[in-house]
Amino acid sequence: MSKLYFRYGAMNSGKSTNLMQVAYNYEERGMKVLLIKPSTDKKGGDKLVSRLGVERKVDLLINDDQNIYNEVKKWQDEKYKVDCILVDEVQFFKAYQIDQLFEIAVCLDIPVICYGLRTDFKMQGFEGSTRLLLLAHSIEELKTICKCGKKAILNGRKINGKFVFEGEQVAIDNIDNVEYESLCGHCYFKFKNQ
Questions:
Q1: Lowest mean pLDDT among 44-53, 57-66, 127-136, 150-159
Q2: Does 27 participate in catalysis according to the annotation?
Q3: Residue 43 belongs to what domain range?
Q4: pLDDT in tens, 119-132
Q5: Of the listed 28, 55, 89, 127, which one is catalytic?
Q6: What are phi and psi of 162, to 5 degrees?
């Protein structure tokens, strides 16, 4: 039986880069991958974009109301048999869409490897990530460091270069003067309490 994997990490922990490396490894062995991301993620449009400058077109951009299970079945019927599904920015999916990814892994026997954030800039869980933490067969943290050198576990949001701790949960990196910085707990509270 195939599994549903959740690989999470703070901003800039190499999630998209890792995803593209996994895609390359499958394809190097003659296997077919299906790359998916939510349409909520406007960064890169229909591409996955890594900080290293690597980018790759996604196969499916999924809206909040789309059934991922049905989209994958349709893809397999019309294009090719999928050996692995790779999902970027999975935190933006709805809980029921995570259930569909779980069903794909179990019923269609396709490994589904999801990459995303566990929490937002207010230390709140994303709907998709919260559901994945409950359903994933395997959960793995991708690590990065805070500028102070400690392990980063949180995401600080900056607008016009200044940390903010209020606002909508979703604001895309590098759009409307929004940027993110991975932070350790100590630095997060230092900036929050300034």
A1: 44-53
A2: no
A3: 4-143
A4: 999 999 999 999 99
A5: 89
A6: -115, 135
